[in-house]
Amino acid sequence: MAVSTPGALAARSTPWMPTDVKRGTAPRTPGSKARMKEMENGVMKEVNPVKALQGGAVARREGGMSLVGLIIAAIVLGFAALVVMQVVPLYIADQKLTTIFKSLESEAAGSPAEIRRKIDKQLDINEVDDRFDSKEFEIRPVTGGYSVTYNYDGRATLFGNLSLVAEFKHQTRVSN
Question: Would you list the domain boundaries of the chain?
Fold first, then answer.
């Protein structure tokens, strides 16, 4: 078995070593030239961990979220989810009320009592009769029919005495 020097090892072609490393053109990290010289000379020095942390050798700082950051992000996301869960039902109920107003617009009615019956029926069909009452709808006579108006505030309680208020306005004209 022949003993070879470290310089001879670097010059010899090895199949596992990339070509750019053999030629010495590979990208290097800070301090790697000194390490390569030490390896060629057969001398390896111990790396001082304090110097490595101070930037004397290659030091990497791990990235990521701290526990405090994770807790703050969880609180913000939880609050956003609470707001969405409370506000979305308000808008779903309002969309159902919008469909009721569109159906009133397309139908003819003879009297305010008949309009209220149609509103009651539509509220029951759309399953929002627990939120709205047909007596709260304002029905006024106008030329050629009636004007039906309903303005209301939708409230979503977040927690304690903190609530969100959304203001909704609906108006349509019902012909005779």
Answer: 67-175
